[in-house]
Amino acid sequence: MPDSDLIVLAVGGNSLIRDDRHRTVADQWALARETCHHIAHIIEAGHNVVITHGNGPQVGFIVRRSELARHELHEVPLDSCGADTQGAIGYMIQQSLTNEFRQRGMSRQALTVVTQVEVAADSPAFTHPTKPIGSFMDEATARERATVNHWTIAEQPGRGWRRVVPSPEPLRIVELDAIRHLVQDGYVVTAVGGGGIPVVRDAEGDLRGVEAVIDKDLASSLLATALDADLFMISTDVRKVCLDYGKPGERPLDTMTLGDAKRYLAEGQFGAGSMAPKIEAIVRFLESPSSKPRRAIVTCPEDLEDALNGTAGTAIVPA
User: Which end of the chain is less packed: N or C, by CB atoms within 10 Å?
Assistant: First the structure.
């Protein structure tokens, strides 16, 4: 690995979709190019970057297409949806970065690892679905879909209703050794897309996919910890972490200690389907053993460079 710091950068699936009017593949390509323009700045400045990404909206689109076409074609299981979106979004990222590198005269190469993440077959998550996927809906639409498609649905206050599916705890990244070697050889790797493809081991020790999705921030934290990254960055659709989000007294935070983060989590300051898993992922990363100082940042794609320089986003530090 080149002698510089290592950043694991988690790009949110929602940060590739500007709004409900800009959800097409072409729209996502435009935002992927914009995001990768900022990522390339970071790499050009000498940082090593491993990229992860969300895929909630994109999985939702595939599931909806599958439902609409069920009278003609078989439906696509969730683990295959995860694999499909890893390939598609990884393709957007690696092509966008490849073009950025060429334009800047940089001799770097981007690639994508379709990544499996092992979960426990007996995880209680399989009987208590909590992970939102797909588009936001009004309550009437959500309840109709729940009845027709046998979905579990849940409301995200202030944003609408979504389908929720099992989200078991990520235990092990199956392709970790390959990812580590690629990073050491200087490749800009996209991995653990959408939290990874959820797999379990059978009685013989063989892997098989399961109908679930893994939280991408928790899986990204697991990857950052396993690679002993210096910095864990989460790029999402807000500029900073806020207290009392969406309320009249909303307060954006420039910095937050690990202790503060744990306290705010316990107080319920962060939404269960939005900021809470991001902060939980950061807490896990900062609390994991390491021989070097670690920190984390939450920001939006356009503020990546400024956040890295300490002038934007929310920085989370051990103390």
Answer: C
Mean pLDDT across 203-232: 96
Burial degree of 18 (CB within 10 A; 0-12, 13-18, 19+) = middle
Residue 9 CA neighbour count, 13 Å, CB half: 30
Taking the C-alpha atoms of residue 51 and residue 120, their distance in angstroms, rounded to an integer, is 25
Kindly report the CATH class assigned to 6-128+166-317.
alpha beta
Q: Could you give the residue ranges of the DSSP H alpha helices within the chain?
A: 25-44, 56-68, 78-104, 139-149, 176-184, 216-226, 258-266, 275-287, 304-308
Catalytic residues: 13-14, 131, 216, 278
Sequence-ordered list of residues with C-beta below 8 angstroms from that of 23, at least 6 positions apart, any chain: 17, 57, 61
Q: Is the pLDDT of residue 150 over 90?
A: no
Say how far residue 12 (Cα) sits from the centre of its chain.
5
Specify the pLDDT at position 63: 87
CA 259, 264, 267, 273 torsion-angle sign: negative
Query: How many Å separate Cα 34 from the centre of its chain?
Result: 17
114 in Cβ contact with 86 (< 8 Å) = yes
Task: Indicate the burial class of 164 (C-beta count within 10 angstroms; 0-12, 13-18, 19 or more).
Answer: buried
| Nearest CA among 218, 216, 198, 228 for reference residue 284 | 218
Dump pLDDT digits (tens) for 118-135: 999 999 999 999 888 877
**Distance between CA atoms of 293 and 139, rounded to whole angstroms?**
46
Cβ atoms of residues 118 and 214 within 8 Å: no
Query: Residue type for 61, please?
Result: F
Please give the model's pTM, rounded to 2 decimal places: 0.91
Summarize the confidence of residues 166-185 as an average pLDDT.
97
Question: Rounded distance, CA 262 to CA 282, Å?
Answer: 10
